[in-house]
Write a structure and sequence with these properties.
By secondary structure, this protein is α+β, with helices and mostly antiparallel strands. The chain has 3 domains: about 1-25 and about 225-375, no CATH class; about 35-185, no CATH class; about 380-620, Beta-galactosidase, Chain A, domain 5 (Distorted Sandwich), CATH 2.70.98. The protein is about 35% helix and about 20% strand. The chain has 17 helices and 21 strands. It has an 8-stranded antiparallel β-sheet with strand order 11-12-13-14-21-18-17-16, with no helix packed on it. It has a 5-stranded antiparallel β-sheet with strand order 3-4-5-7-8, with no helix packed on it. Helix 6 (about 105-115) crosses helix 7 and helix 9 runs parallel beside helix 11 (about 260-275). The radius of gyration is 26 Å and the shape is elongated.
Length: about 625
């Protein structure tokens, strides 16, 4: 899509030389910095003043070796990310104030980061080694992020840093060239590029490419190398776009959109600004649909559909989303970004790994965002036919009432869970039947024992288990006969699950059908109609629930939140028996979403069966 459209001969005419590339004002160019209003200025200063006379956290070798030794990622990652977050805050504050008060701490930050053996994280190192090989630089997500941060630091503050000692900026140039610029141009074998390996790429591709592009545009003074980098980025980004279907859906889950579609937008903006607008892809239908996917996954507040590794709560990059909406002229995407901005002003935003590039854009767009609408988009019906995800709510433009999302797909999706046929139900914007999500990443998360983790297993999704057998792992385990249809006010979604399970489960046929009846009252009906190859009593359905449910013998499950709002799930008590299991959450990442516990309700056959039609009816209390 990109590389065929923009040939190297045109790139040589369009790419802006280093000395002319001025997308932001430097610290010396005061007008835009001085126009930042006092409340926002004071907010930024307060954040940065924490790091005056800062003791930069240590990154000892044994912290790095934790990942290979015991699977722990965080003991090294957390202080590494803290270093970068501190430097970004200090750079912004110095640009705003321009009095030199933060410069010594900025220099200390630059120096200690430049002295790190590896800018990435242990999980992305060559896993044959406990420690990084400094003679073979690896470009991973966070090596790229570090290069982007240092390149912008260089751009904004070079004149001031050179007055202190030119060796500071020379060191940035040296380290970024050695670790990022040279490997990017000379190697095609980083898997995320998609160039030599020809494997399936994911969010790594635009995320790494965006930071590599940034480093070239802000640091590289050799014009031919600038052109080569842009040309290579176009080819690599095509590998990312080639895995996307027409619906623009992100099979990695909504949480990853910020570093999939969102980082693609970062790349497109860098290409646009680096060519004076000559590289402009915003009219392409796929680029538009990739942006629109985000509001098609929106539920309410900070809740989004969260299949795969995504969390239910997503703190989106509000300014980036707003700017994406502006570029493709989509008012719904703009309103999602602006409404998230207003919400985050109240509840706080997630600043982890928030790139300096994005922070600077948000700073200069603050007043525009403040004046923009705070009403989010609520899309009534969503059908992403290629990734086989549907969603429906009671009415357009409102979070009131029931919300249903469900999926088909296969079990080799990026950041996959074994979750074909999975669904979630919200009521008035709050979760009641859930997708638990994923725990804090460890070495096990992306290793051969991934599906030993309970959150990855189909038994801990809202799915059947047959003869003790759960869904299988691999692309061959998939949904079939997937259909979505709107019938008047109602919506119906159906799929077959028999191909999602190994043959030893003994399934002849298993059809799951969702019907969202929008009426008075509205309700959701889920029907599992199945035929097994042999009679068995060992057939059950799981329901994952965030609050302790109340079961009654008449066949109802009452689920209420702390505000006494909730839903009722009716089931066939003559043929099914319900039990409840409390699951204690000890993981910090899951706990931040669901608290100390979740519950699993299991509906199990009372007597041996070979075929049946089980129905659940879900309505508001």
């Amino acid at each position: 899509m990109l590389s065929p459209k923009y040939k190297v001969e045109e790139l040589r005419k369009w790419i802006i030389p280093l000395e002319e590339y001025k997308p932001f004002p430097t610290v010396e160019e005061r007008d835009k910095w001085e126009a930042i209003t006092d409340p926002l200025r004071m907010e930024q200063m307060k954040e940065a003043e924490i790091y005056l006379n800062y003791t930069w956290p240590s990154l000892p070798a044994n912290f790095f070796m934790d990942f290979v030794r015991n699977g722990n990622r965080t003991r090294y990652e957390n202080p590494s990310f803290q270093r970068r977050s501190a430097l970004a805050s200090l750079v912004i504050a110095e640009c705003l104030e321009s009095e030199g008060r933060f410069l010594d701490d900025i220099i200390n930050g630059i120096w200690c980061i430049c002295e790190e053996s590896f800018w990435g994280v242990p999980a992305h190192n060559n896993l044959n080694n406990k420690l990084p090989n400094v003679s073979e630089p690896i470009i991973d997500l966070f090596a790229g992020e570090t290069a982007g941060l240092l390149s912008l630091t260089y751009y904004f503050l070079k004149s001031r840093l050179d007055q202190i000692d030119p060796l500071i900026c020379n060191r940035i140039q040296l380290e970024v060239k050695r670790r990022i610029l040279d490997p990017y141009l000379t190697r095609d074998d980083f898997w995320w590029m998609g160039l030599a390996t020809k494997g399936k790429v994911n969010n790594w591709n635009p995320w790494c490419n965006s930071n590599c592009l940034m480093a070239f545009l802000f640091l590289e003074d050799d014009f031919e190398r600038r052109v080569q980098a842009v040309e290579k980025a176009l080819h690599s980004l095509d590998c990312f776009l080639n895995v996307y279907h027409e619906d623009g859906g992100c099979d990695e889950g909504t949480m990853y959109w910020g570093r999939a579609g969102g980082s693609l937008f970062d790349c497109l903006e860098l290409l646009y600004s680096g060519s004076n607008g000559k590289i402009d892809m915003y009219s392409e239908p796929l680029i538009k649909e990739i942006g629109r996917y985000l509001y098609k996954s929106y539920i309410d507040g900070e809740y989004f559909t969260n299949f795969a590794d995504g969390g239910a709560i997503v703190k989106i990059s509000s300014n980036l989303v707003y700017r994406y909406g502006c570029r493709i002229d989509d008012k719904k995407l703009m309103s999602l970004g602006s409404s998230a901005f207003h919400l985050q002003r109240k509840v706080g935003k997630d600043k982890r790994l928030n790139s300096l590039n994005r922070q600077i854009h948000a700073l200069f767009d603050f007043e525009e965002m403040l004046a923009a609408t705070s009403t989010p988009p609520y899309v009534r019906d969503v059908w992403l036919k290629d990734i086989q995800v549907m969603a429906a709510r009671e009415e357009e433009g409102s979070s009131k009432g029931l919300y249903l999302a469900a999926k088909g797909g296969h079990n080799d999706e990026s950041h996959n869970h074994n979750d074909i046929g999975q669904f979630i139900v919200y009521s008035d914007g709050s979760p009641f039947i859930i997708d638990v999500g994923v725990e804090t990443y460890t070495s096990k998360t992306f290793g051969p024992n991934r599906y030993d983790i309970w959150t990855m297993q189909s038994a801990y999704h809202n799915l059947p288990t047959i003869n003790g057998i759960q869904q299988g792992v691999g692309e061959q385990f998939k949904a079939t006969q997937v259909k979505q249809k709107i019938i008047g006010k109602d919506v119906r979604f159906s799929l077959n699950l028999d191909s999602a399970y190994p043959k030893k489960a003994g399934i002849g046929n298993w059809e799951r059908q969702f019907t969202f009846h929008r009426g008075n009252p509205s309700h959701i009906e889920i029907c599992d109609k199945f035929q097994l190859k042999r009679t068995t009593k060992d057939v059950s359905l799981s329901l994952m629930i965030p609050f302790e449910p109340q079961l009654d013998q008449a066949g109802s499950i009452i689920i209420q939140n702390a505000n006494s709002k909730g839903i009722k799930v009716d089931y066939d008590a003559d043929n099914l028996i319900a039990t409840t299991e409390r699951i204690i959450i000890e993981d910090e990442k899951l706990g931040s979403v669901w608290g100390e516990q979740v519950f699993r309700v299991t509906l199990k056959a009372k007597s041996p069966i070979k075929q049946a039609s089980w129905k659940l009816r879900i309505c508001q209390l």
